[in-house]
Amino acid sequence: MLLWGIAALAVAAAIASWIRTGRVSRKLEALTQSYWELRYDFTRLRSQVARLDPESAPAEPAEPPQAAGGTFIPLASVNLSKKKD
Q1: Which of the ends of the chain has fewer CB neighbours closer than 10 A, N or C?
Q2: Average confidence score pLDDT of the chain
Q3: By the 8 A CB rule, do 50 and 57 touch?
Q4: pTM for the predicted model, two decimal places
């Protein structure tokens, strides 16, 4: 009888986690949608401001943030063959 109780408890926990996963998934979808809407609005507003005052627009785009720890080195440029002299 104890095993049936443990099995029933495990099934209940699985159902509860399934329901919670669905809720979290819907929240993530809503956040993703909001992010892209805000990004679209930001870009649209920035272009409107640039159109209204072209002298205040930045001459060149901002540099992308660099990863901590140095510069990026593509793997294609790394010579992995070991040469013995």
Answers
A1: C
A2: 83
A3: yes
A4: 0.50
